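Q: I'm writing up a methods section and want to include an example of the input and output format. Could you take the sequence below and give the corresponding predicted structure tokens, formatted cleanly so I can copy it straight into the document?
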Amino acid sequence: MKRDVGVIVVAAGSGSRTGGGSQELKQFRWVAGKPMLLHSIQTFQARADVAMVVCVLPREYVGDPPPWIFQSDADRLLLSVGGRERSESVANGLEDLPTECEIVVIHDAARPLVTSETIGRVIDEARQGNGAVAAIPVVDTLKRVESNGKVIETVDRFGLWRAQTPQAFPRKAIERAHREARDADRIATDDAALCEQIGLPVVVVRGSERAQKITEEIDFALVEALSIFRE
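A: Here is the clean output for your methods example:
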């Protein structure tokens, strides 16, 4: 199999919202049997088509990373410096990817239980020339509310999906999206939105409930529970 996939794992955040009194970065904390970040590195490197995994870390950890990060294929691992914003961190990772990486997968380290099946689905779409977003259909009733909590309306959930990562793109497309966003001083909450802003095709593929994002302290316990289930 041709190794033409480059992966950017975004792990440059401070993780302050998790709280819990820990001084350790969220992405370095143990969950489901290993450090959170290591889950993603090992899952992506298990794929034969992945040429390189670039981990984007806070600047102070790039030169002195935790030793467990090398419990992986060191020949397919690079460390990159995080930026002030997520988009800057991804752009730094893009610059460090080897030239042979024609498909780019972007993943948040805060989703440690990403499945191989989901990764395969986004890569397959990227090979067809699309941006691809792992996502889950919205099943809850949605309410739009004012700042005081008063309900304004019930939002029709038809066609609404909860975006996750990984997201995958043809390399030229995602590089163009980041370049034009930077030039126009535009921001977005994920990389797919940058492609949408300039009219590049983006599709959703079925994600996984196991890909829970760890944002708050309680999410560690939830991911521990989800880790025992296999899809």
